[in-house]
Amino acid sequence: MSFAGQVAIITGASSGIGWALAQTLAAEGCKVGLVARRREQLAELAGHIEKSGGSAAFAVGDVAERAQAIAAIQKLASRLGPVDLLIANAGVGAPTTLAPFNVGDVEKMFRVNVLGVVYSLEAVLPQMLERRRGHLAAISSLAAYKGLPGESGYTSSKAAVNVFMEGMRVQLRSKGIAVTTICPGFVKTPMTEVNEFKMPWLLTAEEAARRIIRALKQKRKVYNFPWQMSLFMKFARWAPDWLVERMMHTYNENPPFPKTPL
């Protein structure tokens, strides 16, 4: 399968996996629509793509705000054409602390990581249903498979994405619309650069993008990668609480918060 000539919209495209996905899809001849909060980075990415002979357009919007998410995506669809592929990639992460109990950060993670996916799908679903074709994808995380101490907010938000997308996949299977949930392990992005610990099986954003696009071409239901980290998380699900607490103790003594507030 080729994405040449298709229209793909990517949220959270201003850095990391979203940036790499946009470049890789554009190189395959896909018309890419870029959504994020940071105008300067979006303009830079669109410029790179067009200088390389690709086709790109961007719209500024915060996917955590329903009206902004829908307006940005629909603006791009009106410019590029009906959306064939939506990748709800925008995501944020921060540790969950106890004293103080940072409820505000947890709320932000759910607004971006979960509702941001819902709002993005809402913007393209009516047209996909009318055309009886399309592909919806969400970037989740292998962290969705285990509630980790110090990461309760992030892991639970990603678990919610997995379950939501699973229900959508079953509901849409007879409507001509494919649904894919992508669960990466550690990827080198601005979100993970604050981590001081050694991240096992760390991938570059470019390598992650290549693997994700291959999975999308195959219309995978769920894609967990890399396999080593996926296997590790399966074992972690059965690990006793005392062992998980011990493994995360050093992390929780000095949790790595993002450089800019969520």
At a glance:
With 262 residues, this protein is α/β, with parallel strands linked by helices.
Features:
Rossmann fold; 262 residues; 48% helix; 8 helices; alpha/beta; 7-stranded parallel sheet; two-stranded parallel sheet; 9 strands
What does this protein look like?
This protein is an alpha/beta fold and 262 residues long. The protein is built from eight helices and nine strands. The strands form two sheets. It has a seven-stranded parallel beta sheet, with helices on both faces. A two-stranded parallel ribbon has the order 7-8. Helix 5 (152-172) links the parallel strand 5 and strand 6.
Looking across the biggest beta sheet, what order are the strands in? 3-2-1-4-5-6-9
* Category by helix and strand content: alpha/beta
Helix coverage percent of residues? 40-55%
CATH class: Alpha Beta
CATH topology category name: Rossmann fold
Beta-strand residue fraction: 15-25%
Mean pLDDT: 97
